[in-house]
Amino acid sequence: MAVAVYPGSFDPITLGHLDIIERGSRLFAQVIVAVLANPSKVPLFPVAQRVQQIQGATAHLANVRVDSFDGLTVAYAQRCQAQIILRGLRVLSDFEYELQMAHTNRSLSPQIETLFLTTTTEYSFLSSSLVKEIARFGGNVDHLVPPSLIAEIRHAFPVHCQ
User: Fold this and answer.
1) Is 148 annotated as a binding residue?
2) What pLDDT is recorded for position 39?
């Protein structure tokens, strides 16, 4: 069985991400959840904290490893000797961007395939940005993120009474 890299910013990891990781862990010998250190984004949580969050959320999956990287995803996949880049698709608008990235990655490294998994319907609307927006305004995100992250998200967005 192949090794898959599931790259992303995961800021924070959501139940949609976890759904893709769990399903990927049934398909591949190993899934490497690769947290991208993207210098063009200002993250809520530092990379090291996101790695720890994902490790906690995936502790029940023996064949999942969490790491961080910067640079090109295909270069990272090559270093890990992965054959697959795993990507999740929520809605049709994701497809155009993801297809462009898959073609680009294939042009850079033809031996690495990109595999798309569609999210489970209940998570098709879910994104890290949405979680942060809800939390920023004091909304409940408990049903959107792994239980181990709830306290960290609440701490990052303290609700102030007026």
Assistant:
1) no
2) 79
Give every CB contact of residue 140 below 8 A, 6+ residues apart in sequence.
134
pLDDT for 162 equals: 38
Per-residue pLDDT tens for 67-83? Answer: 999 999 999 999 999 99
Annotated catalytic residue 41: yes
Is 106 among the residues known to form the active site?
A: no
Q: Considering 25, 50, 90, 132, which one is annotated as catalytic?
A: 90
**Is residue 23 flagged as an active site residue?**
no
Residues 65 and 30: beta-carbon distance below 8 Å: yes
**87 marked ligand binding residue:** yes
Q: Number of folded domains in the chain?
A: 1
In a domain, 24, yes or no: yes
Range of the domain at 95: 3-124
Query: CA separation (Å) from 87 to 32, 40, 65, 102?
Result: 12, 21, 16, 9
Is 90 a catalytic site residue? Answer: yes
Q: What is the CATH number of the domain that holds 101?
A: 3.40.50.620
9 has binding-site annotation: yes
State the average pLDDT over residues 93-121.
Answer: 93
